[in-house]
Design brief:
Mean pLDDT: 88
Shape: flat
Structural class: mainly alpha
Order of helices and strands: HHHH
Number of strands: 0
Helix content: over 70%
Strand content: under 5%
Largest sheet: none
Low-confidence stretches: none
Radius of gyration: 20 Å
């Protein structure tokens, strides 16, 4: 992959990382701001359910943040866009769809196929 495309992906990853970190900070402030008085147990249960759902979403975003940071590290080390399984280049089309991809589409497809087989056994 040429330098211009690598810089494009670096910008894409950094923009996504900044947005996720900003959202996480705002959500953390909202979760710790307990100024609402609950009228009854039903209101409290609804708030707790919403809070639990939000925390699950934040956990998924935390994982994505780590994947983005790993992708940026691979960019710095000259390993970005190379499949960790077979060592072949990951297609730009795949990286556009999933900039944090570490496997080429062929290796990922095969891994998913094997996973499905192990689940059905």
């Amino acid at each position: 992959m040429d330098a211009e495309k690598l810089e494009f992906f670096r910008g894409l990853l950094k923009d996504r990382l900044s947005a996720l970190l900003e959202e996480a900070g705002a959500e953390l402030r909202d979760l710790t701001d307990d100024k609402e008085a609950m009228a009854d147990d039903i209101d409290f249960a609804a708030m707790e359910s919403t809070r639990e759902f939000t925390l699950r979403l934040r956990d998924r975003e935390r994982i994505l943040i780590r994947k983005i940071q790993d992708a940026l590290r691979r960019l710095d080390e000259g390993e970005y866009g190379i499949c960790v399984n077979c060592g072949e280049e990951i297609s730009e089309k795949r990286l556009m769809a999933r900039p944090v991809a570490t496997w080429c589409i062929d290796c990922k497809t095969e891994a998913e196929r094997l996973e499905r087989r192990s689940w059905s056994s």
